[in-house]
Amino acid sequence: MNNTAQHSETLEAMARALSLAARSPEVGRNPRVGCVLVDDSGAIVAEGYHRGAGHPHAEVEALRDAEKRGVDTQGLTAVVTMEPCNHHGSTGPCSLALQQAGIARVVYGASDPGELSGGGHHTLDQAGIDVLGGVSAEQAEELNRHWFFAMRHQRPFVTAKWAQSLDGRGAATDHTSQWITGEDSRERVHQQRARHGVIMVGTTTALIDNPSLTARTPGGGLAEHQPQAVVVGHRDIPEDAALRDHPGGFQQIHSHAPKGVLGELFEQGFRSVYLEGGKTLMSAFIHADLVDEYHITMGPLLLGGPQLAVDDIGVNTMSDAKALTISSVETLGRDVWVVATPARAKEE
């Protein structure tokens, strides 16, 4: 087989591995990973993907699939979306499993940034296995965008969401805020809640609004994945608060230090946070430069008055402004949904 044909078949195999990885849970402690085993003719003879924390990794699933099919793994190529892990966690290292199975070649997408789990490339290379990394790496990283960020920064990825009027108010003068935006925007919010590990609010929001903060389907039922509800602040939440019965779990973190809160959540295994307010907590995270993406939805109305969507964020003059890069602007029903990232993210 010439190099062009081999490259084409490798990309096809990786495309299949990526499609398998997309079946992995989007939210969790571990990344989404897919793996296929390929023979000398370029045919895929076995495959697998990671089904979530505590389950075998994608490489082991593919090896088990080969065993079920009666496929001899000696001399096969493993095409996996992420560098095989190199440590003993709840499961053994995939780099060792591939060696023991007689895999002759490993092609992977994104490198593993983990201090403990990374290094599989080197281990495989030392064992005499031909290793090629970086194939479709960008697609593999995009599948695990929050996870890669969290591992590199040792804190969860934070998405800040708020609804506002076109003149920047989060509520009317009497504090009423339902509903600034319409059903289409609220449906999008529920979708985003289901794509994060934590949904976070401050004590004022929890005490005054008594929100449920669940992720729901368009039909009103509970989404398959529910984020954990986290309340940040020192005031105690009543025992009969709706959040205490949250299907994704509940905890209160008695702190006013955003960085410390994120560090605690990272140690618990959370890799993403959907921050929904209130204004004081939101402003504290923005002030500390700990928001990584903004979801700002604007309803077609003007409210005036003092109830701004965000408060003091440490900007006293234009040179202190928090510069953003707008990623997308979308019309949802009558509303406008803006996604933006800090300009600093471009440099990281």
Mean pLDDT equals: 91
The fraction of residues assigned to DSSP E strands is 15-25%
Q: What is the radius of gyration?
A: 23 Å
Major sheet size, sense and barrel closure: 8 strands, mixed
| Fraction of residues in H or I helices | 25-40%
Task: Enumerate how many helices there are, as a single number.
Answer: 10
Molecular structure report:
With 348 residues, this protein is α/β, with parallel strands linked by helices. The protein is 28% helix and 22% strand. The protein contains ten helices and 13 strands. Helix 3 (94-100) links the parallel strand 3 (77-82) and strand 4. The radius of gyration is 23 Å and the shape is elongated. It starts with a helix and ends in a 6-residue tail after the last strand.
Secondary-structure map with pairings?
Blueprint: H1 3-21, E1 34-38, E2 44-49, H2 58-69, E3 77-82, H3 94-100, E4 105-110, H4 120-126, E5 130-132, H5 137-143, H6 145-153, E6 157-165, H7 183-193, E7 198-202, H8 203-209, E8 228-232, E9 250-253, H9 258-267, E10 272-275, H10 279-287, E11 293-299, E12 324-332, E13 335-342
Parallel strand pairs: 3-4, 4-5, 6-10, 6-11, 7-8, 7-10, 8-9
Antiparallel strand pairs: 1-2, 1-3, 11-13, 12-13
Helix pairs in contact: 3-4
